């Protein structure tokens, strides 16, 4: 994997080498599984902060794209990145996030916290061009509530990295992916903040996963894939609907 041309920080770990080890192994296992299982679809990230995980994903796309002799079948992997670049939306008036530990107690997920440093979006565009070429990737700025309806993903998504922290933001992303039936059978959801909010099932990603999958009325279910760091967990999405082609929309 190539080294970063820009030094970017990771919001979860102060030790950048430890962050690379934890995320690097989890992401690599995910790519090995998706490519080894011949699962079609894009790689999508929701929430990028300074671009740490974004560039890891881009490097893996480039690396695995080149391994055509090892894998019997490969698929195009368009890369999508959605982020406000302005930090978190407000949780005021939200009955779940407003009373969560990360908002009401620590205050870490308050409005505009974790805003990307100035120039982050442009840096990512330059780095994507360097790593992946002039096409094959899309960066969409804005809050998910605005960007997903205005610029929806319309192709299958094999790997989705959700680093959107809040319950409300996670719901917006999952409802888009699940509601539009964008996840092929066996797709992977990387849930970066699954154990945040003291791992309480009333808050955050734990609650969002449970409720959003329930809204599919049995079309989708999920099961655990792997755990990474103290915070993250990856899941398989299983299509159990009535489509005769499990990869059809």
From TrEMBL:
<dbReference type="GO" id="GO:0008168">
    <property type="term" value="F:methyltransferase activity"/>
</dbReference>
<dbReference type="InterPro" id="IPR029063">
    <property type="entry name" value="SAM-dependent_MTases_sf"/>
</dbReference>
<dbReference type="InterPro" id="IPR008884">
    <property type="entry name" value="TylF_MeTrfase"/>
</dbReference>
<protein>
    <submittedName>
        <fullName>Macrocin-O-methyltransferase TylF</fullName>
    </submittedName>
</protein>
<keyword id="KW-0489">Methyltransferase</keyword>
<keyword id="KW-0808">Transferase</keyword>
<dbReference type="GO" id="GO:0032259">
    <property type="term" value="P:methylation"/>
</dbReference>
<dbReference type="Pfam" id="PF05711">
    <property type="entry name" value="TylF"/>
</dbReference>
